[in-house]
Amino acid sequence: DDVKHAQNGYTPSPVLTIDGVPALEFLQKASVNIVLSHDPDARFNGMFRSLATDTNLAYASPEPFALILGDTTKVTCQNGTRFEFSNAARLRANFTKIASGADLYDVYGRGDSTDERPLNARFYQLAERNYIAAFVGYPKPFKSTRHVAGFLPESSEFSDIAVLALNSFNEAPNLDHVDRSMSVQQRDFYQVVVDSISAAKAANRTKLVLDFQGNGGGLTSNIMALYFALFPGDTLPVLWQARAHPQFAWLGKQAWDPTSSIGQWPVYNMMRPDGKPWSSFEELYGPFPDAPAGQKRWGQHTHPAIENTTSVLRSLTDQWPLPDGWQYQQPWTTAPFRPEDIIIVTDGQCGSACAIVVSILAYAHGVRTVALGGRPLRAPMQAVGQTKGGPSMYFMSMPDFDRSQVPEGLRLPPDRFTYRPPLRLGGSQATELDDLWAMTVTFNVNDLLPYKGNASELGQGEVPLQFRYEAANCRLFYTWDMARNMTDVWKAVAGVTWGGKKCAPGSTTNADGTIGGVPGYTKMVEDQYRLGKGAGALGGK
């Protein structure tokens, strides 16, 4: 319909119902099945394609509909037009041996079958993407890779504004370059960020829009490179706490080696908040009391720690040296923009590394945020609606140790060379692609704590950011033009940030509707729909 509208002047009629259910209600119920996003507004945005996710070579996931669609879907439009669509699933696997649920489990559920595995459907989707095409709906970038681009828009509204579009902190997977090392990604990301900021300053652009739409995270080294390009230094103002439990305690004690590199185990890069190394794993482990005496405890945690940024920023090029010898270096010593001259814009689909850097910029520096889209509510919306994690630790990066010494009853991560997942991962067991994907199973042990550079400010009972509601300073709904032209998005964001334009009703603390402080929690933002009991069941109100 969008294509017909643009090319032929066709005006589509609004959809009234889907399978007899009001369209908005149907979409909100279906969005409950969206993976990654915890926030209902971020999940709602995840139901639709966007310019940002298309640029990142992402796709609108079909998973939300898999458990609720029948053989057909009936759509009724406002003008009375009715459509009926057939629903079908395309299976890549060879099901000639599958005659029952037990057969399905034996071949694909046990993990020890010798039957050939089909390629993960994700590979087919990636193969259909165009890795070199220009960004659709974006102006011409000053400099770009597929996951980060710098813009100096030419219209008068942007005379003093530059834009960094950060669609990911990982390069989009490219099946033609599966051997492209992460050190190359790190170098390319760094150069786009640094060169774009340098060009902005040379052009007297004193304000910066940081566009994180569709950014699901990526490399920790890239968020450090971005942060230090904006606020030069050598410490990332964020504290991590790991869950303190017997498995982690035993693993840490057995594998602790502070002289080793991050390539062995990321825990080695955890430092005391004063920047000094921990004397032992036991000192790091604690556990740290999470509540004053007599108050309710909500779990055991390690002592708060900061990351050794020097080690992280050099770790990739140490493992995969570049022919030209490139290593990360801080580009300058003075911040190129004031915090009040930076604005963050997201569509709520910001998680992992994206969540970390947005939280740092907001908490440590007071950088404001604008959230786009979401449910049609007169209420605030969170800028970060996906998982708020910390650095992930790969099973394959675990140091080798004597498993015969494991205490009875203590379960450990599986050995990285002999392990076969309980659910068989897509790929061919004999190919490098399998190693690339199947061995990236991770676990995350970290909580993220608000921190402004003074460890003494961290009190017992501090609630990690993962468990906080964090509304954006302002919310905007997409207009027809904003959904098709990214320049219009940035123009709207700049208008509410520096031009006195109004935010969506109910989304700001200022009575006149302009951008203000951070709105508090309101019951209006709660989920109306939840998963019911049973696998895949969809609950109602």
TrEMBL record:
Q: List the taxonomic lineage.
A: Eukaryota, Fungi, Dikarya, Ascomycota, Pezizomycotina
Which InterPro entries does the UniProt entry name for this protein?
Answer: ClpP/crotonase-like_dom_sf (IPR029045), PDZ_CPAF-rel (IPR056186), S41A_metabolite_peptidase (IPR052766)
Q: What is this protein called?
A: CPAF-like PDZ domain-containing protein
CPAF-like PDZ domain location, by residue? 2-96
Pfam families noted in UniProt: PDZ_CPAF_rel
